[in-house]
Amino acid sequence: MTRVSDLAEALLTVSAVQPLRHPPFQLGWVDAPHYSVSLGDFPLDSGGVIEDFSISFAVHGDSRDDRLPIALALCAIGSTHHRMDFMIGTGQALDPSRLRILAIDAIGNGLTTSPSTSRSQPGYLFPQFTIGDMVRSQASLVKRLGIEKLDLVAGASMGGMQSLAWGVMYPEAMRRIVALTPMAKTTPWARLVNLLARSTLERGMCHELGGEPATDPWYDWVPLMLALSMRTPSQFDAEILDFCRSPGKSDPCPWLDLRRSWWRSQGFESIDWIYQSRAYDLHDVGKLGSFNGDTVAALNSVRAPTFIAAPSLDLYNPADAAVWASRHIPECHYMEINSVYGHMAASGLDQSASRALNDAVARFIA
C-alpha cells in the first residue's frame, strides 16, 4: 500500500480539473476533489498513439491517511467518475472514512482525453482504443501516484468489464475485484445493441461526413440506450404508468422527451460514445496478455477473490455472460441481483437492489 506521503504529495503535483466539461451535478452524485494527470503520448494496443494524453479522476477519502486502503472505482460506457457514487458514502460499501477511492474516467468519456477533446487528433482522426487500453492508462496513473498495491478494483457494466481486465492484466495488483453486470467477452447480442446505437448516432452526425446536420443526433439513441437495453418491460411499463399519473394513459413519448432533454444537458459527445462502444465490442479478456484469445485461460489466471453480480434479466450485458465468467474465476462469489431494473439494477435507480448490493459488497471486502 502506498505511504501517506506518496498519494497526498503526488496529488499536489497534478492539475485540478477545470469544471468546463463536467456535466451538471445530479441528485445522488457525491462531490469530491477532481484532478487530471498528463501521461504524455500514450501507446495503444493497436500500435497507435493518443497524443498529449491526460487522465481524469476524483478522490474520495483522506489522501493523507495511510491507514486507509485504496480502491479504484471505474466508470461505464457514456458515464463519468460518478458512475459508482451509489456505493460511495458513509455506511456504503465504499465508505470514504474507511477507504481512499480513486474514481477514474475512462478514455473517451469527455473528461479523460477523448475524440471530442483532442486538439491534434479530433473526431475520427482519434485512434481506436480498447478496454485494455483503458486499464493500462489507469495502471499508469496508479504508478504515477506512487501506489504500490490496490485493495479493490470495482465497476459496473463497462466498469465491471474493466475490473475483470484488471484481474487478467495485473493479477497481483489488487486484493479484491468487484464486477457488476460485466462480460469477460462481449456477446453478439451486446454488439448488436451497440451497432444499432452507433447507426443512429452516425446518421445524426452525417453533417460531419458532408451531409445535412441533424437536429438531434440523440433522438433515436435515447429510446434504445436509456430504455430498451437498460431496463426490462415490467419496470418500464410501471415507470411510464407512474410518470403519466392518469388512469388509462401510458404514452412513453413525454417520458422519452424528458430523457432526451436530460441527456443533452449532460454534454456527452456522440463521437465519444461511438468510440467507447467500439472498444466495448472488441472486449475479450482472452486477448489480453499472452492468452491468444483463450478467454477461459485468462479468467483462470485471476488471482484476486472476485465478486460478480447481475440481475436475472439484462437486455444489454446478458446475465448468462456474468454467470459464465464467475464459473471460470478460481475464487469467485456470484450474486443474482433481485431487481426488475435490468442492466440498471447495479445503480442507484433501484434503491432496494442498491442497499442489497452495498451490503453484499461491504461484507465481501471487509
Question: Notable features of this structure?
Answer:
9 strands, globular, alpha/beta, single chain, disordered N terminus, Rossmann fold, 9-stranded mixed beta sheet, 366 residues
Number of domains: 2
Q: What radius of gyration results from the CA coordinates?
A: 20 Å
One letter per element, helices H and strands E, the order comes to HEEEEEHEHEHHHHHHEHEH
* Distance from first to last alpha carbon: 16 Å
CATH class of the largest domain: Alpha Beta
Structural class: alpha/beta
CATH architecture of the largest domain: 3-Layer(aba) Sandwich
Helix content: 25-40%
Beta strands, count = 9
Verbal overview:
This protein has 366 residues and is of the alpha/beta class. It has two domains: 4-187 and 284-365, Alpha/Beta hydrolase fold, catalytic domain (Rossmann fold, 3-Layer(aba) Sandwich); 190-275, no CATH class. The protein has eleven helices and nine strands. It has helices at residues 4-12, 131-144, 158-169, 188-204, 221-228, 233-244, 253-266, 270-282, 295-300, 319-328, 351-365, and strands spanning 15-16, 34-43, 49-60, 70-74, 100-104, 152-156, 177-180, 306-311, 332-337. It has a nine-stranded mixed β-sheet with strand order 1-2-3-5-4-6-7-8-9, sandwiched between helices. Strand 8 (306-311), helix 10 and strand 9 form a beta-alpha-beta unit. Helix 2 packs across helix 3 and helix 4 (188-204) packs antiparallel against helix 8 (270-282).
List the topology elements.
Elements: H1 4-12, E1 15-16, E2 34-43, E3 49-60, E4 70-74, E5 100-104, H2 131-144, E6 152-156, H3 158-169, E7 177-180, H4 188-204, H5 221-228, H6 233-244, H7 253-266, H8 270-282, H9 295-300, E8 306-311, H10 319-328, E9 332-337, H11 351-365
Helix pairs in contact: 2-3, 4-8
